[in-house]
Amino acid sequence: MFKIGVIGCGNMGEAIIRGLTKSKTVKSTDIIVSDIDPDKVELMVEKYNVAGTSSNRRVVENSEIIFLAVKPKDFLKTVEPIKDFFTEEKVVISVIAGISIQKIKEVIKSIVIRVMPNTPALIGEGAIAVSFEDIDPIKREEIFHLLKSLGSVVEVDESLMDTVTGLSGSGPAYVFMFIEGLIQGGIKGGLSYKQASELAVQTVLGAAKLVKETGEHPSVLRDKVSSPAGTTIYALHKLEEKGLKDAVISAVEEATKRSKKLSQ
């Protein structure tokens, strides 16, 4: 019997496997994984020393907690053939965007928990939102402990999961684009790619840590950097002129709308 089963070895599936094994929250030998692509399964076995199989049924039958990490369009064709093996004592953690707990419960009998992680979970720095149905408090704490191996965990009402998808689920892509802009700005000014990249990445990392560790509102920290008639206030004026903040808000809104559409 395995402690953890993972169905789907794409980006999110691997992030879960890597986070659990790297943090030693679960022994690698207590994890079994499956995927429609046998090469992905083989890769997970080689990289993380987990058990692998081509059978989703074997994963479900032999695991206490099952992570469903398949694409939304593949949900029914993955689960329907093996639905009878999702018994009531098993816990299913769904990372499938746009598929509600209610829709999953229409197919299987197990306890269902819905989470929305993001790709930084690969390095244990993910932002993970979680929604529970009724669950035993001890089991609830166990799930929190598992998820914390992937990063920071925030409990939200399931009705807000589409917003979470638009904010933190898609959010790393927005940040990557911003970092790319910083790097290109540095290169335009004469820095090498290596120099600009190191400075840009550390600037974003340091700024994020400063917000997290001080607990101050980003606008307060921004004002502390902005000297009267200095370089920063001139730069901020240009960002406002170009609509940076409005563009980011709109991006979150558009991703949220798309998530809602997928859920229908």
UniProtKB/TrEMBL annotation:
Domain Pyrroline-5-carboxylate reductase catalytic N-terminal: 3-98
Signal sequence, start to end: none
Cellular-component GO terms for this entry: cytoplasm
The protein's name in its UniProt record: Pyrroline-5-carboxylate reductase
Keywords: Amino-acid biosynthesis, Cytoplasm, NADP, Oxidoreductase, Proline biosynthesis
Family per similarity comment: Belongs to the pyrroline-5-carboxylate reductase family.
PROSITE patterns: P5CR
Ligand binding (NADP(+)): 7-12, 69-72
Pathway this chain belongs to: Amino-acid biosynthesis; L-proline biosynthesis; L-proline from L-glutamate 5-semialdehyde: step 1/1
Annotated EC: 1.5.1.2
Pyrroline-5-carboxylate reductase dimerisation domain segment(s): 158-262
SUPFAM superfamilies the record matches: 6-phosphogluconate dehydrogenase C-terminal domain-like (SSF48179), NAD(P)-binding Rossmann-fold domains (SSF51735)
Entry keyword annotation includes Coiled coil: no
Function noted in UniProt: Catalyzes the reduction of 1-pyrroline-5-carboxylate (PCA) to L-proline.
EC category name: oxidoreductase
UniProt catalytic activity: L-proline + NADP(+) = (S)-1-pyrroline-5-carboxylate + NADPH + 2 H(+); L-proline + NAD(+) = (S)-1-pyrroline-5-carboxylate + NADH + 2 H(+)
Localization: Cytoplasm
